[in-house]
Amino acid sequence: MPVSVPNGNDPIAVIADDPRHSVSGFTTEFIRELHNRQGVSLRDASLHDKFQATASAVRHYMVDEWLETKDKNAAAKQKTVGYLSAEYLLGPQLDNALLATDLTEIVEESLAQHGIDLAQVREQEVEPGLGNGGLGRLAACFIDSLATMDVPCIGYGIRYEYGIFRQTFVDGHQVEEADKWLALESPWEFVHPENAVQVNFAGHTETWTDETGRERTRWVPGWGVQGLPYNYLVPGYGTRRVNTLRLWGARANNQFDLKTFNQGDYVEAVRAQTFAENISKVLYPEDSTPQGKELRLQQQYFFVACSLRDFIENELEPGFDLHRLGERIIFQLNDTHPVIAVPELMRILIDEKGFEWDEAWEVTKSCFAYTCHTLLPEALEVWPTELLGRLLPRHMQIINLINVSFMAEVRATFPGDEERALRMSIVTEHPVQSVRMAHLATVAGSKVNGVAALHSQLLRDKVLPDFSALWPEKFTNVTNGVTPRRFVRQSNPGLSALVTSRIGGGWVKHLDQFDGLEPLADDAGFREEFRAVKAANKERLREVLHKRDGIDLPEGHLLDVMVKRLHEYKRQTLKLLHVVSLYEQVLSGKRKVEDLTPRTVVFGAKAAPGYRLAKDIIHLINSVAAVVNRDPRLEGRLGIAFPANYNVTLAEKLIPAADLSEQISLAGMEASGTGNMKFALNGALTIGTDDGANVEIRGLVGDDNFFLFGMDEPAAAALREQGYRPRSIYESDETLRATIDLIESGIFSGGRGGAFGSVTSALLDEDRFMAFADFASYLEAQEAVEAKYADQEAWTRSAILNVARTGYFSSDRSMRDYLDRIWHAGPVV
Predict the structure, then answer these.
(1) Do 183 and 330 share a domain, yes or no?
(2) 3-state SS class at 149
(3) Which of these is catalytic: 483, 674, 739, 806?
(4) Where along the sequence do coiled-coil regions lie (predicted)?
(5) Which tens digits make up the pLDDT trace of 453-497?
(6) What is the pTM (predicted TM-score) of this model?
(7) Which of 296, 509, 678, 805 is catalytic?
(8) Which of 79, 296, 509, 564 is catalytic?
């Protein structure tokens, strides 16, 4: 990889100290890979062969720096960040690797000389769907930033054979298909079976007496599997550091029983292999069954057991004093999924390393910190003690002992307050005896953080108030961020070039430099160039959706975008009610078609396979789209686009094209959001509630450049407390009533009235997230959107100010906050 030095507008001017860093040098690598990896000549190579050879050749440019990074880390003996996450939504890797190695132009020219179009090669890449949404995308941003900042980091997770399902629509209904992202293999991974880790389950515990006469406990497992490490390279931008993402795949200890096979029982011969591989088979197996719940717990323990063992055995020098482990590693628990790592480290230190309980607990507390990503009680994991004790008997013992000690501390601090003790207990008796993983993480973690200012406040005041009263110093905030490399520089080349032409290219690593754009919001020439970039991005999206989904986006429309996981609290229903309301007003003659602002609403959302109501909402959206999009009375001025299988690849084209960003969750429900940041950084205006990071976005961009609506969190809480009655709002609001009645009339279901009764009944009878309460305010805000969009100069000015004032939302800044407030680690240059 080239050495980089500052130079004018470009943050890295390359000195080609690597002879391969030339067109001819890359061509040699590319042809070698075609021959040696793919086994084909250039003449016979398929597009897939060319992608594999290109990716493998680019990877070669990072390997030396990866090995060099490992050596530097070993020599420096500084603290490493061990990021424990069940999800990593990486997105396609080729462009990211080309950007990090500064090879884009070289590769493009090299391939062109052989009649190969890099754009076509890019399209062959299948992104690894190893995440469900924001949690996994955040993890990917964070490891990118740490590499760019020269901070030692190992991301630990699971190499799911099948990632988040591939979504298709059949008659408007969501249908899940297996995500076969590994069907043609990944060119980005190294597997190291020689470093496999043994992971055990079930069995029982027993006491024994060691040679000193001390009574000890050991775990006698019932069965086990091996964890194979698959290493992915995480290159920094403008640096020689290449960190590691280590994903674990499960393999049976004895994969094949030859004797059984020769007896003719072919299924039984490979039963152990099938059983073991189920652990890393699918991201978030459906857990509505006991078997599904058990598999999820197996997954969680599997990857943290592999990760802790890997760091202790392979990353520390021989003879390292584990009493000092907290000086060398901080394991960040990315939500509750990895929290079983706490009793696992205690087990290793006590049962295997001979530590006394108290010294093991002090070490453990120094090695973990916990990020809570939710305010929904149902999202805070709780495991039945029966399941935990059966699958991990020693860990259940350790959790009980931690809880006994913790309860003694609580009762000593708050004498006589038994209700508080019961509320805080790690083990609860109701409704069944269970372990509350968020409580365990909070007790063991050196710090607990939320992911936006409002979220962190609510985390302290409403989710974990007893803990914040006991340990106020433990709680802090780190507002999320996104990597500007992928979500501006890579995904929006037009905007990147325009910005760099005016303020230089240093913003790619220092996004706060975006504030230099603010004076340009009043420059008519810059506004015109900015609009031209947005128009080009819309045209690019138009081509992508036509080719990918057969969707034809109309020209000249306001592009109104709502892309996120389908959940009631995110309120896709509220957005849909707005569309149906506009349609109803035209049908009833309350509004002339020519008065409609031409608008296309783009949805992108997957519903969890077992989430019935969310899937019904998807069906309703598609059904409304089918009617609205073909109604000639609208004269093409209102439409819905719902491309299936929204993913990072599509996000990179959709976000830069958006005009309006929908961030409309009920206040107090969204932890932070990162989509809201991506849209603002790419020049979309936000319509949103005061929820999550919306609060901070609005504070930075200003009220004039943000469309605020709805209740704030205290108002929503007060309404809920006094008794929320959505049907009374329906009865009193003529526009809302007409909207709901139109849905129930059967117009969107071929005349079958009540076909979407599950959705309308959920709104009328409960409306858990108060869409009705915010409906009128939302429509009023949308009228403000239309008025502003009619004045394109004013809209463009606000869009530029959104870009200029949101540099704060870089994941580099988030990482600095973690390093300073939580991890107390630094770079190794």
Answers:
(1) yes
(2) coil
(3) 674
(4) none
(5) 999 999 999 999 999 999 999 999 999 999 999 999 999 999 999
(6) 0.95
(7) 678
(8) 564
